[in-house]
Every structure is written in C-alpha cells, then in structure tokens.
Design a protein that fits this description.
By secondary structure, the protein is of the alpha/beta class. The chain is 25% helix and 30% strand. The protein has one domain: Roll (2,3-Dihydroxybiphenyl 1,2-Dioxygenase, domain 1). The chain is globular and about 50 Å long. It comes from Pseudomonas frederiksbergensis.
C-alpha cells in the first residue's frame, strides 16, 4: 500500500545550472551530487536531478506541474526574489490561496503555493467546481 510521495526526479540538460537554481534560488538543501545527478531536499521532499542532455523542454500547454509550499508571511518576498532573477511565469493564479507559477531552467512547470488540501477543500465547499463531489467531511 502506498504511504506517500517518495521522491521527484526531474530530467535536466545542465546539471550545474539546475543545482544552482534549486539550491541557490529556491533554497533546497544540497545533499549529494555525482557526475550525472544530484539529490536535494526540503522537509518531506526528496528531489533528484538527473542529467539528460537529450531532454527537450515540453511545449505542452497542459496543467501538469510541481507545487512547493510557502508560508503566507514569506510569499511576497519569495516571489520578488524569483522575479529578480528573471524566472519565467507560465500562468496566473486562478484558485484558492496565493500561488506563483514559474518555470525552472529546463522548463519544468513549478508553483509556490500558500495553503494545503484542507484550505482548498474548504474553499471548494464554498464555491465548488462544476460537478464536484466531496468524499470526506
């Protein structure tokens, strides 16, 4: 039986650039590196960067992305820091809780989000999506 998300692996084209982004800009802890990869972490998240020089940034317009939690008090400063280093934004926030949608150096879609599943479900109970059903109270 599954008990949670174990880790996230992202294919990257320039390992040094990606480590600099995730460690320096997003401030994940760098735990290990090797010739073709790196492990970084946050409490509850194990991130693997895996060198793949053949990776082509996806031009897909889908909503698949990876969201990181950020505290409400830190949100504005975090967004300012990302904008100061020139990250590209890929979407405007359209849901509950403050969110900033941005791309990493390889075009992976990321989000910094204030809130959690409990706050999202509470907002949805007030204004449900079309056809929404709830299975927990």
């Amino acid at each position: 039986m599954l008990s949670g998300l174990n880790h996230l692996t992202l294919a990257v084209t320039d390992l040094d650039r990606s480590v600099a982004f995730y460690q320096g800009v997003l401030q994940l802890r760098l735990d290990a590196t090797w010739d073709s990869g790196a492990y970084l972490s946050l409490p509850g998240l194990w991130l693997c960067l895996s060198l793949d020089p053949m990776r082509q940034p996806e031009a897909a317009a889908d909503y698949t992305h990876y969201a990181f939690s950020v505290g409400a008090n830190d949100f504005s400063m975090f967004v300012e820091r990302l904008r100061a280093v020139g990250v590209l934004e890929w979407r405007d926030n359209r849901s509950e809780g403050a969110s900033f949608y941005f791309l990493d150096p390889d075009g992976h879609k990321l989000e910094a989000h204030v809130g959690d599943l409990i706050s999202r479900l509470e907002a949805c109970r007030q204004k449900p999506y079309a056809g929404m059903k709830f299975f927990t109270s």
